[in-house]
Design goal:
binds zinc ion, binds pyridine-2,4-dicarboxylic acid, 2 domains, alpha+beta, Jelly Rolls, 282 residues, single chain, 17 strands
Length: 282
Amino acid sequence: MSLSQEISPELREWVAAQLAAGHSVPNLRASMRAAGWHDNVADVVLGEIEARAAGIAAVAEPPRKNMPGPDLSGSPLYIDAGDRRVQVLQTMRHPRVIVFGDLVSDDECEALIAAARLRLARSLTVETQTGGEALNVDRTSDGMFFERGENAVVARLEQRIAALLQWPLEFGEGLQILRYSPGAQYRPHFDYFDPGEPGTPTILRRGGQRVATLVMYLQEPEQGGGTTFPDVGLEVAPKRGTGVFFSYDRPEPATRTLHGGAPVLAGEKWVATKWLREREFI
Ligand code: PD2
Ligand code: ZN
């Protein structure tokens, strides 16, 4: 079907949020008509949402074109990230994975761990059922979030990441710090928010979908604790100062970005994770 009006992610989110808030389909259709939307636009959006609710694969969203990531044309060995020359150690196309070396200095790793240690609590992950947070047994690490720009080290690292990944600093969530003790792991998961979950529209109001992840290793364990990509049999070693970046141009398993934190077998692993959204994260 050809639509004369473009269906934006914002429109989809808005319709889903209205439905989640209990507005009826006829009322929604009337509001959309009053706002100038053609009925066929309303039909398509409502149809997608109903199909998802019924567990039927909805019409796939087209992949995003504008994505975070460094300019790899010319296969550079180093990228100038403003205040630091970052190494490109390994790249993969599908899934899009890039391993960066010398991304975080030892002093920065120490400073982040010291500031985070005081505020560790049992990790919470965003609960897409409700849009709130809940204990997640799939993650046995301890964690906390820094506010964006909360201290000088966080601010410096965020500027470096924005330059490296060519993505506005304001589109990033606050830095998350995780500590894994022996036995702790993060079972394989996707970092994007599942469009089929009822709590997702609420989460998406703050900056839209996640489109990329950067996991930075602040302290390496003695054994275990790699970041795994089970769909492609890849495991990234948790080397201090190194970061693994991966991006997903649509919230779908077809991106092959299923990934996990393998169990730490000995020692303690600390990471910092930066998630990037489609838009400004407020
Ligand atoms: O610590 C990791 O290796 C890891 C693995 C999977 C971190 C995350 N996911 C994450 O922070 O999302
Ligand atoms: Zn993850």
